[in-house]
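Example record used in the benchmark description.
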Amino acid sequence: MKKFAFTLGILVACSVLVGAQYNRGGVFQKLLQAQYAISNFYVDTVNTDKLTEEAIKGMLESLDPHSTYTDAKETKELEEPLQGEFSGIGIQFNMKQDTLYVIQTIAGGPSEKVGIIAGDRIVTVNDTSIAGVKMKNSDIMKRLRGKKGTKVTVQVKRGSNPELITFRITRDKIPLYSVDASYMIDDKTGYIQISRFGAKTHEEMVEAIEKLGKQGMKQLIIDLGNNGGGYLNAAIDMCNEFLQRRQLIVYTQGINSPRQEGNADGFGRYKDLKLAVIVDQFSASASEIFAGAMQDWDRAVVVGRRSYGKGLVQRPFKFDDGSMMRLTVARYYTPSGRCIQKPYTKGDKKEYEEDLNERYKEGEYYHLDSIQFNDSLNYRTLKNGRTIYGGGGIMPDVFVPVDTTENSKYYRDMMAKGIINQYSVDYVDKHRSHIKSSYKDVYDFDKRFALTEADLKVFVAMGEKDSVKYNEKQYKTSERLFKTVLKGLIARDVFADPGAYTMIVNHYNKDVQEALRVINDEKLYNSLLQFGNPEYERLAREHKAKKKK
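Model output (structure tokens):
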């Protein structure tokens, strides 16, 4: 199986000589003359190193949204999340327009526990503003990281809501596993949740599948929701397990980068395993490569919402001082020829980052009819010839709207203040021995455990004590959600299993339940793979008719 020399997301750096070969039409000479003039004639003292860094950043800012420069410290720290373990608040993030955007939270980490989600923008850390002040990544990370057990307070802007949300987070060691959960969701269906594509993702996935196989698994759901990507080769290795020999997995191409292909080698162990894949609006890069390859070869039914649309290839250019430039050199394409990258305007990163909010405003997360199916961007799958759609990201075969029916401000406040996590910790401290002796395993706990009304009164009182005023109407709206999340947190702590939380909350996860419904309905599953979704075709025709008018 062919390997690529580059990676997606946070990349392993490789040293590359940057020299006079890039001097086209005297441009290099012009830059040297400008630097010489500033260094020797400017009215004040100039920091030449800083000037050079700002020049590089300025050039990259005028290009695409993913070409970036990091200094030596930032480069070292940005490479950690897919490599080892560190102590902090448990998020992966990008800095865009001087704002920290949360890419994803680490499952079981401190930020996830208090309710921070992908897409949140952290504005202040311990009353210090980090937004709009041109603070270095390394300085921001110093504020967020710290010794296990220490606390940090952050203020977050969520979506278009002008109100800032305050979170108190207790730092902890951050586990960096790729497979966050794997269990039997029914007597024949395995479920695997993968949060990132790291160095050991393929190995972890195979181990999980083998374990599920011993439990009677006949079909599998792979959940890539909220998966922001990672190493390209991890995605290729995963795809290889499910595809036939010589089936194309992904290819890249750019003006200065000839086409490179990744193909299956035919030694995959699960080429006949029935498969469904979940994606959502936060599934990006390597997630989209995996989902796109499975969809293009009619290998799996994809369920959820249109993925992020991150399909630009960054090549790392590491400089002698340890700093690095990640320069976009090509685009990723699925086997059918779809470009994964969503449209963007060069130099306008603000508009690019607001894309998810725009999708929200336009109703794409909630209503199938709000999705724009562009008839001019139709593609055909490579085995059955059914219609699939391009235009950026992976359009799932089955759309699942976001469910907000049980959300409330009261629920959000109880999460943000850490009351939910605090209560679950206190409950486990008092009842750990009883739970361990009463339930043989997490499956038994899932079936039989329930918090009592007395327990929930203590929970509400804990919130009141910490200035979260009780709201009966909002509590009733979120009651089932409270019970489910608390039960999941208790299970995770008692059984020391991060996947226990996922197992319990998945009972009410609409993406997961729809994937389970589809994979268990043989007729529907086969029809989707053979003919596609008829609702999509209807919407595409309507979109085409509107354009003619």
